[in-house]
Amino acid sequence: MGGDDFHKGVKEPSTKLDGSALRILIVHTRWNSEIVDPLVEGSIAALIKYGVKRENITVRDVPGAFELPGAAQRLIRQSQQHQSQNLILGSPQVSHILPFDAAICVGVLIKGSTMHFEYIADATTHGIMKVGLETGVPVVFGVLTCLTEEQAMQRAGIGKGEDKGHNHGTDWGSAAVEMALLGL
Ligand code: DLZ
C-alpha cells in the first residue's frame, strides 16, 4: 500500500458490468444544486457507460439531504407495488412499470457554524442505509459531507484550480450497476 502505485478511490470492477436490463432511480437534492447537478450528470454518464438505457434512469429531486431517504423509500416501494399489481392482474397496460434495481441518493452537505450539519449528515447516512436494507434494493450513498464548498467542488470535478478534482458521481453510477447486478 502507498507509494506511487497507490490507487486512490475505487478500482474498476473486476468483472464486465452489463447494465442494459437495469432500472435505476436517482434522487437528488436542490440544496447546493451547482455542485449536486454535476454529480448527477456524472452518475448518469457512468450508468450509460455500463449499458443502462437513458429511458430506464428515473431522476427525481427533493429539497435537501434530510429528505433523501424518505423519498427514495417511497419511490422504490411504489415501483415494487406496481410490479406486484402487474403480477396479480396480469395487466399488459401497466407492465412497463418495473421495480428499480438500484437507487442513488445524491446531495451535498456543507458544514456551517451550528450543529445542523452533524445532525443532518447523521440522519441522512443512517436513513439511506436503512432504505437499502429494508427494501432489499441497493441504495448508493451519494452524499458529500464537506467542511468547505471548495472541498465539495473538488469532489464534483468542478474545482476552481488547475486540478478540477474528481467527479464522485461516476463512482456512484458504477456502484449502482455493480450492486444491482449482484441480485440478478
Ligand atoms: C437546513 C439545511 C442546511 C443548513 N444545510 C443543508 C445542506 O448543506 N445540504 C442539504 O442538502 N440540505 C441542507 N439543509 C436542508 C435540510 O436537508 C432539509 O431539507 C430541511 O431541514 C427540511 O427538512
From TrEMBL:
Q: Which domain of life is it from?
A: Eukaryota
User: What is the protein name given in its UniProt record?
Assistant: Lumazine synthase
| Enzyme nomenclature, EC number | 2.5.1.78
Q: Which UniProt keywords apply?
A: Transferase
From what organism does this protein derive?
Coemansia furcata
User: What is the primary gene name for this protein?
Assistant: RIB4
